[in-house]
Amino acid sequence: MALLLLCATLTAACGSSGGDDSGGGSPPPPPLPPAAPVTNAGADQTVQELTVVNLLGSATDANNDPITYAWTQTVGPAVTIITPNAAGASFTAPDVLIGSPQTLTFELTASDPGGLSSSDQVNVVVQETAVPVTISGILQYEFPPPNASCRGLNFSAIQLRPIRRATVQLLDASGLNLIDTTISGDDGAYSFTVEASTDYIVRVRAELKGSAWDVEVRNNVDTSGSPPPLEQRPLYVMDQPINSGNVSNPNMNLLATTGWGGSSYTGTRVAAPFAVLDTIYSAIQFVAAEDPAATFPPLDAFWSPDNQQASPTDVDSGDLPTSFYNGQSQLFLLGKDGVDTEEFDDHVITHEWSHYFEDNFSRSDSIGGSHFIGRDLLDKRVAFGEGFADAMSAMTLNDPVYCDTSWFGSNQSGFAVNMENYNTSNQGWFDEVSVFEIIYDLWDTNNDGVDTGSIGFGPIYDVLTGPQVSTAAFTSIFSFASYLKQQVPAQAGFIDALLADHNIVGPAVDIYGASELNDGPGTPDDVLPIYTDIALGVTTNICVNSQFDNDRDGNKLSEHRYLRLTLNSNRVVTFNMTANPAPSQPSAGFDCSADPDDPENSEHADPDYLVWKNGQLFWIGFSCEPNSEISTTNGLLGAGTYVIDINDFRHEDEDSPAGYPEQVCFDFTAN
Q1: Over pLDDT 70: what percentage of the chain?
Q2: pLDDT tens-digit profile of 49-92?
Q3: CATH number of 131-278+303-344
Q4: Domain extents for the chain?
Q5: pLDDT at 584
Q6: pTM of this prediction?
Q7: Which residues pair with 574 in a beta bridge?
Q8: Closest C-alpha to 533, from 498, 578, 567
Q9: What are phi and psi of 319, to 5 degrees?
Q10: CA distance 604 to 582
Q11: How far apart are CA 104 and CA 93, in angstroms?
Q12: Neighbours of 191 (CB within 10 A)
């Protein structure tokens, strides 16, 4: 049979050529045996109540016989089927109760003319119409205020503060898919419109995102060996799984807790990054209230429970010199439990933020370094920068008591500084305390002593963002006070009185402090005049002195001296700085370039100088001093006034021998 069928279908190949085909031909294939149609009632569905539901059935028949259809309902509340004798039918879903979906089952039967048939079923789940609900609430964080005299934090008097202007995200239950985003209000309120009875995650991000600001609080610690850039380190978030329920819920509040367990931290310190964020927002709002058009460059704040004061510094492991601002729109805060935690020390945070403000809105010539309130006599640039940051923190928080809590073993400790009455015996232009008391008294409305007025923040802000930015002098209380008197001439007497109260000459003050007579306590050398004028071709002998620096910080009064050079025309200038007399002479064969770690390197003066004009650095002169001398030729310098900072690096070199002299003198020549 197989062979015959094959030849029957291939007659051209199997038949005789040229033969007579009349009366021949292929027989038709035998008919297929009878078979029922194959029925498909369609895919199961989930639908909303009172909606029209389409039933999409189909059937196939092997013999291509005509098919008839019949829909019937077998399960669920009875409904009327429209066109029940067609492949496609429909019905209106019944009304169901909230939370009680109903399953309706329909059966489709397909039949052929011979009476053969088959059936298939489809399930339709009818549920209550999805009515959107609102989930909303208040975001807060726990804030422990300081104890009396700032001796640690009072966890028995927790305050609940709103998490203001933070990014709030709505994610699905997996946490992988973002559904919606909003910003919390100044009262910490947030709100989302969502589907009822659905699981979600509400995520609060420790960031401020707006058209005028961009702040993120991140964890700087990464000991993986190949950490990402700091700006890509993990951002702190707070997650809360929720179910939206069947009705709107205005009480879905979220609270970031401290993690305090009664005598130590025992839980996750969720509140910490939000406390940091909220303090920064307060500082932003203080400035924005004066200048609504102010735009704040992006800022990253780095906090970690592993951050501690240590040397050497390694931010990846949490070893910091202290809490600090690095001049690159990044600030770092201590957080080590049992050592020093800064997240709730809002004065400390606003102090560091104020360095960011001065760096980005004004100008800071501060050389930084270690300083201690009320003890140190500082380089005038450091004194102004630190004093301003102290005063700014007090103004921002409307609280004159600068509070810094810490730990001493298992006991909490700290210190408080009241900017209204923290006078010291070391008052002057070199004193951080004098600077912050003057600036704070200019702002506050409390009358005490010579503080009989207030100019508010406006003139202070205008000076800092105006003439202070391009002052020809180094930034100091002199430049600030001089410009402020020009800004508010009617308040000149008030300003002079505050300056005089801190032993600073006021009536004839100029940006250089040329009339200043206060050279510090005792009978110090090498302090005045603050600026020494030099002329081309004339050698000036001037001394630097570490007499007020016991720790080789290199930022104390008289360790840096200031020169002033005025050029009447453009010209190329060569600067030469040589120790005279030299503290010591190099040993035979000394070659610091070949062996920079030679211990004798620290026995010789290391002259350094920096040349500035209106806040712009034009030239740095430094060497490894084989002859205690440095000579460099600058490029073309334009006409104008230049200020030059000179110092001996040995005064901040940890390897300098114990007997290295406090006073070192240099011949400085500009040709």
Answers
A1: 92
A2: 999 999 999 999 988 899 999 999 999 999 999 999 999 999 99
A3: 2.60.40.10
A4: 38-127, 131-278+303-344, 362-518, 531-587+597-670
A5: 64
A6: 0.82
A7: 633
A8: 567
A9: -90, 110
A10: 8
A11: 9
A12: 15
72: left (phi over 0), alpha (psi -120 to 50) or beta: beta
Average pLDDT score over the chain: 91
Query: What SS3 state is found at 570?
Result: coil
Q: Is 118 exposed, middle or buried (0-12, 13-18, 19+ CB in 10 A)?
A: middle
Residue 526, SS3? coil
Assigned architecture for domain 531-587+597-670: Sandwich (2.60)
- Pull the structure tokens for residue 588: 């035979």
Task: Indicate the burial class of 17 (C-beta count within 10 angstroms; 0-12, 13-18, 19 or more).
Answer: exposed
Q: What is the CATH number of domain 38-127?
A: 2.60.40.10
pLDDT digits (tens, 9 = 90+) for 287-306: 999 999 999 999 999 999 99
Q: Please give the structure tokens belonging to residue 494.
A: 């008030």
Taking CA atoms, 31 is separated from 3, 24, 59, 62, 169, in Å, by 20, 21, 21, 11, 67
Strand order in the sheet with 629-637: 540-545, 663-670, 571-579, 629-637
Assess whether the region 131-278+303-344 and the region 531-587+597-670 belong to the same CATH fold: no
Q: Identify which of 429, 520, 526, 440 has the alpha carbon closest to the alpha carbon of residue 482.
A: 429
Residue 179 has pLDDT above 70, yes or no: yes
Q: How many CB atoms lie within 10 A of CB 11?
A: 12
Distance set, CA 636 to CA 15, 534, 564, 644 (Å): 108, 18, 17, 16
